[in-house]
Structure formats: C-alpha cells, structure tokens
Specification:
The chain is about 45% helix and about 15% strand. The protein contains 15 helices and 7 strands. The protein has helices spanning about 5-20, 25-55, 125-135, 140-150, 160-175, 230-245, 260-265, 275-285, 295-305, 315-335, 340-345, 365, 370-385, 390-405, 415-430; strands at about 80-90, 95-105, 185-195, 205-215, 220-225, 250-255, 270-275.
C-alpha cells in the first residue's frame, strides 16, 4: 500500500499538477498563489513541531544528534505525531485549510507560535507569499525570501518559479501587442497609479485604460509604465492603442491630470470628456476646513442628485443646464467662506456634467473613474510589503496580473432600448457626422439628416 504523502509534499504535488494542466494561465497563477500560502504555513507549522519534539518526521529519538546526523544520541522531548487535523486560516484572498499536526505522549502542551492555540487569522505569512510572488515576477529566486524566514523546505522549486515568471512575461507581452480593431467602445476610462520601480528614484506611474464596449461588456484595454504623467507619455500610450486598431469612444472618463486631458483631446478629438466627480470632490474638500467638510461634501453631491426629479428624467442639454444652475447655487452659498474651493469647482465646470447626455442607467458608473482605482488599490496593497519593486518588468507584470484577473469579475452595463437609441444618436453626431448638420441648440444631440 502506498504511503500517504506528508502535507507539504502533497501541496507541492498540487502545484506541479497545476502547471501540467491546460487551464488558463491567470487562473493557474491565482491558484498557485493560494497553494503557495498553504505551503508556507504548512511548512512553518511542521518546522515548529520538529523543533518542539527535537526530531523530524519519521525520525527515531534514538538516532537524533545535535547536528541532525545519525549516530550520537541526544536528549529529545517525549511524545510523537498522531496524524493531522484540518485548520482554516483566513487571509485577505480567502480562507485556506492546512493540516495541523496532532501530538500524543508529550509532557508539555504544544502551541504554535505562529497561530497560538486558537488563532485563525495571519497576515505575516501572507505578506511573505506576496513578497515572494513579486520577487518571482522579476525572475528572482523566490526561495530566498521564504528560506530566509522559514528554512529551505518552505521554498517553491526554482523550476516552478521560472515557469511562473516566463509564462507571465510572455502572456503580458502578447497582450500588449494584441489587435484592438474588433474593440468598439462607448466609454473609455483612463487612470494611473504610482509605484517605486527604480532604486533611488521617486514613485513612477503605470498608465491604464479600460472600457465598456457597445455591447455593454467591460474590457481591459491597455497598461504601460511611464516616466511621468506628461502629455507626451499619455499621448504615446493612447497612440499605441489607436495604432493597434482602437476606435474613438463616445466618452472618456478621467481625473484632472493636465497631461492626460491634453493627450486625450489630441488623440480622440471627437470624443466627449467627463471629469471624475470623486476626484473633483476631493479637490474641493481639500480647501475646506474640517469643521465644514461634511456639510460641503453633502452639498456637493446634492448638485448631481437627480432623485428629486422623479422617474421621468430626460437626458441631454436641459438636464446639463439644470445641474449647471445647481453649481451656480453652490458657488453663491459658499463663495464667501471658501472662495478657493468654489474656484476649484467652477474651473472647467462643463466637464463635470458631460455624463448627463448619456443613458440615465449609466450615470453612476460613468461620472467617476474610481472603479479602476479600487483595483489599483489592491495592487498597491500587494506591493506595499516590499516597498520597492526589483524593476520595471516585475512592477508592470504584477499590476497586469492583478488587473487582468480582476477584469474577469467586472460588471458590464445594462442596455435598454431607450439607452441604445441615445448612444446611437451620440455615435452618429460625434463619430460619424454628416457633412452638414441642421442648426440646433444642442450640437451634440443634433439631428443627423444631411442638408438637401
């Protein structure tokens, strides 16, 4: 009868089996990360038991020596292993189950220093997993991080690390070169997040683009490292997307970074632009005293609250004009006490209400760019434990791996018949205009019949 594999060896066998399967690479990486957490925790607990008993698994007390070799006997603690019991450890990526060793015949009670008698949550070991994963993405030896902390038995094999690294880099390179001509967007979201990638240098941005297609489906469009958020950097990033076939969207949603705005207006001249309302709220509140921030914040969001208009809300220029009048009322109320905050709100105010021309059911999703910011926040959380990435390649690779995995869970947009008509009218007016338009008070939503 075959001997049951020890828990550590069983986990390693699961990792090897993952890479032998035909499953999607991103799913494999996610599972390897979870199995890596199990491997580290399992190895650490087994090492604690070895230290407690004074001997390794299957090793007899009569053969143990001070230097770990067979021969000279040494005093060891009485007791022996008696199987395992499952123990669930909660991590931020979900619960994982380890096989906790059971002991019998000991004079002292064994309590893990990692978990104690009843601890079911750990962050220190999860941090080691994340740090090792990041080091691995730069094709560095993951064994170093784990072996330094828990001993050589805790590390993944070099071949496994190499497989992970090479596969991620190859997938990312192919993703960056893929054809985008079959992607037609209604909404394009642009944002950047800063990471430390080079020794002795300040944090540098990674530029990202994602969007919602004309079918209402979310899609991760582009990602690239840059030296700054300058106009040139964003222009190069967006131009690359266009060269690969990306067509102009109806609406670009972004924060107020000057370089981003300038580049977007140069590359996508026909697209409308929406200023992120969340970013603008932060800018306004930064100029308000702490005592009044709650009141000003409530007044700010009341500007864009349409619930008092009932169910018969018609999007378009009349709705834009209504909200602009609310902005005027806000300015009149607060200009005396906080002129700097009001000036901030009024600067480029038209870009705050562009989303009101689009279907009502999309408003709360297209008036800010915070969705991708939350995913960036998850990436920063993973990267925080190491302070600085080993290099640009590892940084971009990790950000891509996290965002690409997250994109599979992004929700799309609801498309109603009324909303589809609005979007189609906007496409004809913005992206496929006739040679001459009939005069109208609303040029964006003007009829698109050609002049006789």
């Amino acid at each position: 009868m075959a001997r049951t594999l020890p828990p550590v060896q069983a986990i390693r066998a699961e990792i090897d089996a993952l890479f032998a399967s035909d499953r999607d690479l991103v799913e494999v990486i996610e599972d390897v990360a979870r199995l890596g957490a199990r491997l580290i925790i399992q190895t650490a607990v087994e090492a604690e038991v070895n230290a407690f008993l004074g001997r390794a698994r299957y090793q007899r007390a009569s053969t143990v020596t001070a230097d770990g070799s067979n021969g000279e006997e040494t005093t060891v603690r009485p007791g022996h292993r008696n199987g395992h019991c499952p123990t669930t450890v909660k991590t931020t990526s979900g619960p994982i189950t380890i096989a906790r060793p059971k002991l019998r015949g000991t004079t002292d009670k064994f309590a893990s220093r990692l978990f104690g008698a009843g601890v079911t949550r750990t962050h220190a070991l999860e941090t080691l997993v994340i740090a090792s994963f990041v080091r691995g993405l730069s094709v560095r030896d993951v064994e170093g991080a784990l072996a330094d902390a828990l001993g050589p038995e805790a590390a993944l094999s070099k071949s496994t690390v190499s497989t992970i690294c090479q596969a991620i880099v190859a997938e990312y390179d192919a993703w960056c070169r893929r054809d985008l001509s079959n992607v037609e967007l209604d909404y394009l979201f642009l944002d950047a997040s800063h990471f430390k990638m080079h020794d002795g240098q300040r944090a540098e941005p990674i530029l990202a683009a994602w969007g919602i297609t004309t079918a209402g489906k979310p899609v991760f469009i582009g990602l690239a490292a840059a030296g700054s958020e300058s106009t040139d950097a964003w222009h190069d990033f967006l131009t690359d997307l266009v060269v690969r076939g990306l067509r102009p969207p109806l609406l670009i949603v972004s924060d107020g970074a000057p370089g981003l705005i300038s580049a977007a207006e140069q590359v996508f001249t026909r697209s409308l632009r929406q200023r992120c309302l969340v970013h603008r709220a932060r800018n306004v509140l930064a100029k308000v005293s702490a005592a009044d921030q709650a009141e000003v914040k409530a007044a700010y969001w009341q500007i864009f609250d349409l619930s008092d208009l009932g169910d018969d809300v018609k999007v378009g220029q009349p709705l834009v004009d209504l909200v602009q009048r609310r902005i005027d009322a806000f300015a009149e109320t607060w200009a005396g006490r906080y002129p700097a905050a009001v000036k901030c709100l009024l600067t480029n105010r038209q870009s705050l209400t562009t989303y009101l021309r689009f279907p009502l059911e999309h408003h709360k999703r297209v008036r800010h760019s915070n969705f991708i910011e939350r995913t960036f926040g998850e990436t920063r959380r993973r990267a925080k434990v190491i302070g600085r990435f080993p290099g640009e390649t590892s940084c971009v690779s990790l950000v891509w791996a996290v965002l690409d995995r997250a994109a599979r869970g992004w929700r799309g947009f609801t498309l109603t018949s009324k909303g589809l008509r609005i979007l189609q009218d906007l496409r004809r007016a913005l992206l496929h205009p006739p040679t001459q338009l009939r005069p109208t008070d609303d040029p964006v939503l003007a009829p698109v019949t050609e002049a006789a």
